[in-house]
Automatic annotation (TrEMBL):
Gene3D superfamilies attached to this UniProt entry: NAD(P)-binding Rossmann-like Domain
Lineage top rank: taxon: Bacteria
Residue ranges occupied by any NAD(P)-binding domain in the UniProt entry: 9-193
Coiled-coil region list: none
An example molecular function term from Gene Ontology annotations: oxidoreductase activity, acting on the CH-NH group of donors, NAD or NADP as acceptor
Stored InterPro entries: NAD(P)-bd_dom (IPR016040), NAD(P)-bd_dom_sf (IPR036291), Polyketide_Oxido-like (IPR051606)
Signal peptide: none
UniProt cross-references to Pfam families, sorted A to Z: NAD_binding_10
Protein name: NAD(P)-dependent oxidoreductase
Length: 210
């Protein structure tokens, strides 16, 4: 049985990842700041920034579902990830990050990203930039068994769970209908699949609806 912790489990994606993992028989600990609202069997009520190496000891994987949205808190994408990496440094525990799509490349040379495009909404650029910066810093961590999972460009909170998806890499991937879309529910399926069977250590992967 896989033993995992989901950090920021009360969030929309965190709850779905927790639910998916519990359904598959995982032993799941929800790491939450407030009252647990997930299906997890175990709860650790603690702020992410207060977590210690001892708190995260013994897990097969830690899922980072943390999110920050305001101008003041956007830098926490970097600081929170650094804190989790420091806490897991040198261990066998995997760290899987709920990432963003803005940093996916749109050319084979990997010199242009989704967020660089003329159609990318200005309102999302600060968030995409903050998450892209955090990913760049993560790439320098050779002491952690991390995997960064980017969703499709259209990440649908209330989309249906089909249980099917296409696994991509560093570049924006389109399905056969020319779409870059995935639901939160199918993203959760992909995340748990990666914990269960994936071996994308120190790699960024991406997922899109089949």
């Amino acid at each position: 049985m896989k033993k995992i912790a989901v950090v920021a489990a009360n969030g929309k994606e965190g709850r779905l990842i927790t639910e998916e993992a519990v359904k598959r028989g995982f032993d799941v600990t929800a790491v939450v700041r407030s009252e647990n609202r997930t299906a997890a069997q175990n709860v650790l009520q603690k702020d992410l920034f207060d977590l210690t190496a001892e708190d995260l000891k013994g897990f097969d994987a830690v899922v980072d579902a943390f999110g920050a949205w305001t101008e003041k808190t956007l830098p926490q994408h970097s600081t929170s990830l650094e804190h989790l990496c420091d806490s897991l440094s040198g261990t066998d525990t995997r760290l899987l990050i709920v990432g963003g799509a803005g940093s996916l490349y749109v050319n084979p040379e990997h010199t242009a990203c989704v967020m660089d495009g003329p159609d990318f909404p200005d309102s999302f650029k600060p968030l995409a930039s903050a998450m892209g910066k955090a990913l760049g810093e993560l790439r320098g961590r050779n002491d952690v068994r991390w995997t960064y999972i980017s969703p499709a460009a259209d990440f649908q909170a209330d989309g249906e769970r089909t249980g099917e998806y296409i696994l991509g890499g560093e570049e924006l991937t389109l399905n056969e209908r020319g779409e870059s879309v995935i639901s939160y529910a199918d993203y959760a399926v992909a995340m748990v699949d990666e914990i269960e069977n994936g071996e994308h250590i120190q790699q960024r992967i991406s997922v899109v609806r089949k």
